[in-house]
Amino acid sequence: MDLLTDALAVGGVRGTVGARIEAGGTWGLSWSTLNGATFYAVTSGTAWLTVAGDEPRQLMPGDVVLLTNGTPHGISSAPGVPLTPCPGCNADEVMADGSVVRLGTGEVQTHILGATYAYDPTVNTQVMAVLPTVLHIKADNGGTCLDDTVRLLSRELAYPQLAIGYVLNRLVDIALVQLLRVWLAGGPPEVRGTWLSALDDPVVGAALATLHEEPARAWTTESLAAKLTISRSTLTRRFRAAVGTAPADYLTRWRMDLAAVRLRDTDDTLDAIARSVGYTSVYAFSRAFRRSRCQAPGQFRTAARTSA
Predict the structure, then answer these.
(1) How far apart are CA 67 and CA 153, in angstroms?
(2) Which conformational region is residue 98 in: left (phi greater than 0), alpha (psi within -120 to 50 degrees), or beta?
(3) φ and ψ of 173, to 5 deg
(4) For the chain, domain boundaries
(5) pLDDT tens figures, 172-204
(6) Is 201 helix (H, G, I), strand (E, B) or coil?
(7) Domain 195-307 - what CATH class?
(8) Out of 4, 35, 59, 177, which could bridge 63 as a Cys pair, Cβ 3.0 to 4.6 Å?
């Protein structure tokens, strides 16, 4: 069981190529709050990223940046350059349709590929929710596969061919996973106390994988520990230290995430959904779901489909 793949899928994380920025001379662009997460890959030239409350960050060729919650920000040719809204455009529309945004004057020196990642913020195991607001991976990150993907993005932009949109969308999905690999390999302190920290813990990682493989099974801490051939106390201590909660609490949250996806995306009956996540009665399932989402399953299904 690949826990990260599982979480990305249940969290509904999907990338879409956004604005393709071509800039030269002096320029500055501000974005208001965007839906989802925002991604930039600098394929040539340099730029500066400005986020409120943070020092300006210089972006070099091959750098990638992820802003996880759509926070307002600006990009510019140098620190202190006035930032203006995207000229004559709606920010969300530009970041959704892949428009070319030409900035500054003179010869184009900087190319930046923007992308957005949509995701479901109600998911308890949402990857984006446990990441820092700004995640900056520099090009000199040890020659990882992320470098290769940025080069592929650059080549696709420099030499457009058939189905370029499809290729770019798939590449930005790959880039996200590779960005997370590089970041997690550095042992960032932000993951402590979240389920992401379990990816490097063989005991807790195995426990999570077991729960993900059989979410409907009537697990107890004792039966899970026996499955892993460790003591109950060891499992409880290590699980709580890594994830911040007990195995039973995590399992309930994961079951509710799985149920929410099926309520949103299928016409399955409440009875079928309840049984698929380990509840023998619709009443018990509905009560647990209401505690988790503050809505009855039927209300959640209607609201999710109305907002889609």
Answers:
(1) 19
(2) left
(3) -65, -45
(4) 3-188, 195-307
(5) 899 999 999 999 888 888 887 788 888 888 999
(6) coil
(7) mainly alpha
(8) 59
